[in-house]
Structure formats: structure tokens, C-alpha cells
Amino acid sequence: MSAEPVILGIESSCDDTSIAILKGHQILANVVANQKVHAEFGGVVPELASRAHQQNIVPALTVALKKANIDVSELDAIAYTRGPGLMGSLLVGSSFAKGLSISLDIPLIEVHHMKAHILAHMISDNASTPSYPFICLTVSGGHTQLIIVRSAHDMEVIGQTIDDAAGEAFDKAAKMLGLPYPGGPLIDKYAKEGDPSSHLFNAGKVEGYDFSFSGFKTSVLYYLKKQVEKDSQFIEKEMNNLCATIQSTILDALFLKLEKIVNESGIKEVAIAGGVSANSGLRSRLKEKEQDGWTVHIPKFEYCTDNAAMIAMAGHYEYLGNKIGALNAAPKARMEW
Ligand code: KG4
Ligand code: ZN
Fold first, then answer.
1. For 40-65, how does the pLDDT look when each residue is reduced to its tens digit (9 = 90+)?
2. Alpha carbon of 141 to ligand 2 centroid (Å)
3. Are residues 20 and 107 in the same domain?
4. What is the C-alpha end-to-end distance of the chain, expressed in Å?
5. Does 87 reside within a domain?
6. Fewer CB within 10 A of the end CB, N or C, for the chain?
7. Which residues are near ligand 1 (CB < 6 Å)?
8. How far apart (Å, rounded) are the C-alpha atoms in residues 156 and 236?
């Protein structure tokens, strides 16, 4: 084992095909092939995602090796996303990882996609690195979780959504506004020009540290229906204000629980992770919490949405812990924590 292991990361859990190469904590390459094919369908089409992974994965590896300027013989291990995710998508990445591991005769490492989102903070070119223990709000297209992170191998889920994820709430609201998938980044863009107090949506109430966004979704749906009946141009005219209100309602729900856990646990080291952590409103609201004595950690933009850099980073810790994966392990659409 070299002092700074070189890990190849493979991510294919949803609609991004990504290959990264990590040396120690330093990213040498992080190639992400986005799949534009889903935009017109209003969501990820699993069958199309698997096919696109098949087409993109070999070119992504070729580009990553070239960018990192290394030969496959220099790799110490192959880390891949075992789950959670879309089964067809996961199968492409896991089969490719196994083939590489066998042909190069190096260890195969299984990575949990959501843990990897959190460990993306440990990549060296982030603005800051959290120290343990820290609280992480992990918000993506499929998950919304509050986690106490005590080490790379000790993460406790304190709360999570009981229905839709925050990213799903963004995407579904965007779809109701007629915006293409994924709508989260577009809501973020239009929200910058809008007034967040111009409309009123139900934030959804749930006990403890859990979240719920299904009531919010219904409230947006009924409100838009009512207003469009009165004025068919309502959405076009009000787009910026609607986006600003949608965004601030989702962020209010997230911050309510984030503030609760920080106050009750006394842990003021706070990080965000997952695709929705790319949201500019979330990033600036978290930054403001520094005034309350929080130490906040916001990942580099490219480590927020799905990427293989985070898979390689999580793989690094597994490799150091000698946690080697099995060649006969099947991917897991739902993966235990
Ligand atoms: O982590 P991620 O790339 O994939 C999953 O593991 O789900 O997260 C994707 C989610 C999508 O719902 C997308 O709309 C959302 O992250 N997202 C955003 C922004 N960028 C991505 N949501 C709000 N504002 C953004 N700027
Ligand atoms: Zn993700």
C-alpha cells in the first residue's frame, strides 16, 4: 500500500456517469457525463439512464486517466457505488468496477452513495473541512437526512423525510411551473429575481427531526390550479415570485430541523451535502448562521451533485480500513445505512 493510495471512483446510481481519480485526499480527475436525455420526460427514465451509462462509462474512464495523467497500473483500488439508486444504472457501474478490479488485480470497494455525499467534504480542494463530530444536512433528489457524523465510519441518521425528498420537492414544483427536469437549478435561478413573501405555501409539519414535503407539493398544485383558472398567464407572469416562494418554503422546512438539532445537540460544526446543497439560497442562509456561532462547511459546487470524486473519497476510507468488497456482491437499489 502506497502512503497516498490512488483510488478510481465510479458513480452511476442515477443519471450522471462519473469517473474520478483520487490520490490521498487530492482529486486528479473528476469526469461527469450528464444525461440530457431525461429533460423532455420531466424526470429520469431508468431504461434510458442505463443505456446512457453504457455509452458513457468507457469514454469517461479514458478522459479521467488522461486528465490525471496516470496509467491504470498506478491504481491501488476501484471504488464504486453499490447503492442506493436505480438498479439498471447501478448494474452498469458495478459490473464495470468488477471487470476493472479483476483485470487489474486490485481490490474492489463498495461505497454507500449517501455516505459518499457527506465524505465529499474531506476532498482537499474544498474551502474547509469539517472536524468530527459534525452535523450534516444531506439533501438530494432521493434523500433528505439529518446526520451526526462522528467519523468516516460512524454516521447516525437522526431524522429523514417521511415522503418526498427536498430535491424532489424542487423538481416536482418546477414541473408544475412547466420547467424541464431537473427543475431545482432553474427554481434557484428564477428565485434570485423574485420576492419570497409574494405567495404562501404549506411547509408541511412533522414531529421531531423528520421532514415531510408531500403537503407542500399538494399546496403548490392546488394554488396554481386556482390562480390559472382566473388568469391563464399567471405562471408566466409570476414565475420569479413563485420560484422565490417555493425555494424559501423548502429552505424554511430544512432550517427548522437543522436549527433544532444544532440547539439540542450543542454541535455547532455544520455541513450540507447532496445535489440541493448546490442551491444558492441554502448556501447563503447557512453562511448567515456563522453569526450564531456555527462553523459552516459548504462543499465545492462540483462535489454537491452526483460525482465520482466523492465515491473515490469514501472508497479511500474503506481502503484504509481494509474493508474490501466482494466480487459477487449485487447492487442495492435500497441500501441499509
Ligand atoms: O445528489 P444529486 O445530484 O442526485 C441524487 O442523488 O439524487 O441531487 C439531484 C437533486 C435534483 O433534485 C436537483 O433538482 C437538485 O439536486 N438540485 C438543486 C440545485 N442543483 C441541483 N436543487 C435546488 N437548487 C439547485 N441549485
Ligand atoms: Zn446523490
1. 888 899 999 999 999 999 999 999 99
2. 7
3. yes
4. 28
5. yes
6. N
7. 14, 140-142, 167, 170-171, 182, 184-185, 188, 274-276, 278-279, 305-306
8. 43
